[in-house]
Every structure is written in structure tokens, then in C-alpha cells.
């Protein structure tokens, strides 16, 4: 992510260490699990939105449903994803950058 020389120099000068990993690394992106949960919740609670139109009224309905779906996601899931980061990092390191169970 931080590949420009200026960014690398800034991070190094300020004692901020980074790790090398592929630009697309789902093993290190727990947010992808959260997006999946949001989409699934939205689909289960508002299946009518699968065929939504493009009017302002449709957009407003979608936004309200999205807020409702977001609030329905348990905080425990978010905490679980956050706390999984050390295990994710260790798994990627152990797999030498190759795919992990995450």
C-alpha cells in the first residue's frame, strides 16, 4: 500500500514499520468478512432490494435498509474480526505469504 519513496521515507523516519504483502491480500483484510455479513443481512432482511430501480425513492429506501442492516450486525462479529488480526498476520508469515485459512 505504501510504495512511494516519500511515504516509505516518512514511515521509516518516524519509526513506523510495515510488512510486505501482496496488494490484494484478503487474508489481511477482515473488512471483507464484514462486507459479506452486511450484504447477507441486507439480502435476508430486504430481498425486494435485489431488483431495486434507480429513482430517488428507491435510493432512499436502499439507504435506510443499508443503515438497518449495518445496525443488525453484532458487535461481537466486529470484535472477533479485530482480534483475529494477530492470528492472521502469524498465518501469513507462517505460509510465507501464500494463502491461509482466512
UniProtKB/TrEMBL annotation:
Organism: Clathrospora elynae
MF GO annotations: nucleic acid binding
Domain Tc1-like transposase DDE positions: 1-44
Name of the molecule in the record: Tc1-like transposase DDE domain-containing protein
Lineage of the species this protein comes from: Eukaryota, Fungi, Dikarya, Ascomycota, Pezizomycotina
Source superkingdom: Eukaryota
InterPro entries: RNaseH_sf (IPR036397), Tc1-like_DDE_dom (IPR038717)
Amino acid at each position: 500500500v505504501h510504495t512511494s519513496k516519500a511515504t516509505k521515507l516518512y514511515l521509516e523516519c518516524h519509526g513506523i514499520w510495515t510488512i510486505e504483502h501482496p496488494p490484494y491480500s484478503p487474508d489481511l483484510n477482515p473488512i471483507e468478512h464484514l462486507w459479506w455479513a452486511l450484504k447477507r443481512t441486507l439480502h435476508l432482511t430486504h430481498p425486494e432490494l435485489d431488483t431495486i430501480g434507480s429513482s430517488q425513492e428507491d435510493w432512499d429506501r436502499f439507504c435506510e435498509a443499508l443503515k438497518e442492516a449495518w445496525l443488525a450486525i453484532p458487535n461481537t462479529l466486529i470484535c472477533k474480526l479485530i482480534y483475529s488480526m494477530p492470528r492472521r498476520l502469524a498465518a501469513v508469515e507462517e505460509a510465507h505469504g501464500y494463502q491461509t485459512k482466512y
